[in-house]
Amino acid sequence: MSTESIDVSNANVPAGGETLGPNDEKWLGEYSQVHMNVFGTPLRVMDHGKGTRVWDIDGNEYLDFLAGIAVNSLGYAHPKWVEAVSEQAAKVAHTSNYFATEPQIRLAAKLVELAGAPEGSHVYFGNSGAEGNEAALKLAKLYGRTLPGASPAMGGKPARIIALTNGFHGRTLGALSATWKPAIRKPFEPLVPSIQFVRAGDPFALYEAFAETGVGHYGKGPVAAVIMELIQGEAGVKPLGADYVKQVRQMCDIHNALLIIDEVQTGIGRTGSWFAFQREDLSGGITPDMVTFAKGVAGGFPMGGMIAFGSKLSALFTPGSHGSTFAGNPLGAAAALATLSVIERDGLVANAEERGCQLREGLMATGNPLYVSVRGRGLLDAVELSHPCAHAAMNWCLEHGLIVNAVRADALRFAPPLIVSEQDVDDALAILKAVPTDLPND
Ligand SMILES: *Cc1c(COP(=O)(O)O)cnc(C)c1O
């Protein structure tokens, strides 16, 4: 089917744009009465979904190229996922960590295998990306205490954790301390001390930060860890570059610092490999010391966590070091096992790679002058716009039946479900091709 055959002017939405359907309007009014206003007013009230499509409460259909922010790996209501979650719910949904369950054990083993982590690697489960990063930061702190010059008992200086400008690691106080964006971080300062930012992509800045370690009065504590994304997702889908990542790894090795790769957004097949660090063109082939994951892992069930590479590092967490009531919940574990097994069975990692190429090439081939350049890997992509009208473009797409994300004022982000078909990408491109070039700035 050619992209021309899609009549975007006839999408199932009110003409003239801004008007919401009556049910959307009613429920959004009630929403703001009872919800704290941290998310702004939601765009629509969603009712149900199937595959790559979702319907709002007024019955309007949307092709979803955001997938709940890279979460719904299998799209909506995938039969295998629904079956696995239903069966597990009917068996046992929650036990606490006084008890273990088979799905949880199988999932941890599967994640270690998919990450290609060495013998003796261990998993910690939490319930979100931020919690995966909290676990990583806490483990890094314990590791930091083992470094010469950092032992509190010996009067040492606290070990540092280095994070990058434009990085995003979550909203809890620890993860927020390593998150760059001043507008969301500054109001909550003072935050966790001894976390220091260096300029992303600049190896010399990192070299200098390492060189600040010193025994003298002015020297700082040793560096316990560097935490970073390989593609900075919230910053607008920006790959750091394989050369830089390799240099970071080398500097960490020289200084006995850990390298934490935040794969909350990039992990679980999204970038065309199980984890982004496994892509030579993103990582230069490095091996991390910790990987954090969340978003796509359980196909819509809240789950996250961290894999510590090797037994020595894993062993720094002992009973009482960390925990969470819901962590490793069997319902979430069953959802994740089903998600991973469908990704494997249906070759969705390769599909992410192919559909991503189709999307990026297709965007530039639309000839729409609004689109300046594309970036990303697999199905985590963005298009740079000729002027800062991303919110207007996102709203226009929504009104024409396509969900995309205004990740920055000058960029749209795409993160469709990994099940997305060639036809779905063509359908999305037909709508994207028709986006007016003269939209107002945000
Ligand atoms: C979304 C995201 C997080 C935070 O995950 P939550 O589940 O929202 O806590 C952390 N790191 C990265 C890279 C993310 O994209």
How would you describe the overall organization of this protein?
Residues 1-12 have a biased composition (Polar residues). Belongs to the class-III pyridoxal-phosphate-dependent aminotransferase family. ArgD subfamily. It catalyses: N(2)-acetyl-L-ornithine + 2-oxoglutarate = N-acetyl-L-glutamate 5-semialdehyde + L-glutamate. It is found in: Cytoplasm. Its cofactor is pyridoxal 5'-phosphate. The chain has 442 residues and is α/β, with parallel strands linked by helices. It has two domains: 3-72 and 347-433, Alpha-Beta Complex (Aspartate Aminotransferase, domain 1), CATH 3.90.1150.10; 81-345, Aspartate Aminotransferase, domain 2 (3-Layer(aba) Sandwich), CATH 3.40.640.10. The chain is 35% helix and 17% strand. It has 15 helices and 17 strands. It has helices at 22-34, 67-70, 79-91, 102-114, 129-144, 173-177, 182-185, 203-211, 242-254, 280-283, 311-314, 330-345, 348-365, 390-399, 422-433; strands spanning 46-50, 53-56, 61-64, 122-126, 160-164, 195-198, 223-228, 231-232, 238-239, 258-262, 290-293, 304-308, 371-377, 380-385, 402-403, 405-408, 411-414. The strands form four sheets. The protein has a seven-stranded mixed beta sheet with strand order 4-12-11-10-7-5-6, sandwiched between helices. A four-stranded mixed beta sheet has the order 1-2-3-15. Strand 16 and strand 17 form a beta hairpin. Helix 13 (348-365) packs parallel to helix 15. The longest helix has 18 residues, at 348-365. It is globular, with a radius of gyration of 22 Å. Mean pLDDT is 94; it is low at 1-17. Pyridoxal-5'-phosphate (PLP) binds at residues 128-130, 133, 168-170, 229, 233-234, 262, 264-265, 294-295, 304. Pyridoxal-5'-phosphate (PLP) binds next to helix 5.
